[in-house]
């Protein structure tokens, strides 16, 4: 039996959206769905508003029950489990991720400057999870067939041709193939200063052609593996995070990578920017 799609639930708007996304993903994969709720929030609460173990357990049971009903209404065919776990939220989510193919969590809503807040727990989970983590915005809307408002929308994959990882491409191509939607692969780089001068136009053109050829080369094996996926490629100088956030404006999912650190936790600057500013769900795929 395939491993489940796990989703963290806490009753927030982001959590509701995450449950919908996770249910759709589980149905399309033919995988079971696992709902998890952490009841030990003491380190995240002020002393004055802490609640008893019994109250936390009762609240968790109510939240999980409501989410089970939501899933049954949306995807009645799914095999589903719901677990209330007495531990810190990050520990619960990381344990769930270790036993799942994908972990899905909700963002904490709109932040300043049009960005999103994933909170300290979400950032810890993204930085430490060994499996892909999908962050879903509170305004995520797709019907029970996985069709977003506005019809088909593409998947965007951010790729570094100097460190192109199979894990990222496999995730993005597989997602696009199962939903029969286009895939747009984006690669950008910081152009050297001299390339911005008119006298070096030929050098800049040559560099862009080389980068486009390199991108095509690393993508080609996955074009062959997923021949039904319509793929477009974009390679241009600029700031990678800005390009990805802009490309994701009309996407249903943007896929980025995170290098597994040998010690400590780390989210790269590009991935950090994308998860805070992309307007669609973001899949962070660990590699290395």
From TrEMBL:
Residues 1-137, 153-286 form the UspA domain. Transmembrane segments: none annotated. InterPro entries: Rossmann-like_a/b/a_fold, Universal_stress_UspA, UspA. This is Nucleotide-binding universal stress protein, UspA family. It holds the Pfam family Usp. Coiled coil: none annotated. It comes from Streptomyces wuyuanensis. PANTHER family: STRESS RESPONSE PROTEIN NHAX, UNIVERSAL STRESS PROTEIN UP12. Belongs to the universal stress protein A family. It comes from the Bacteria.
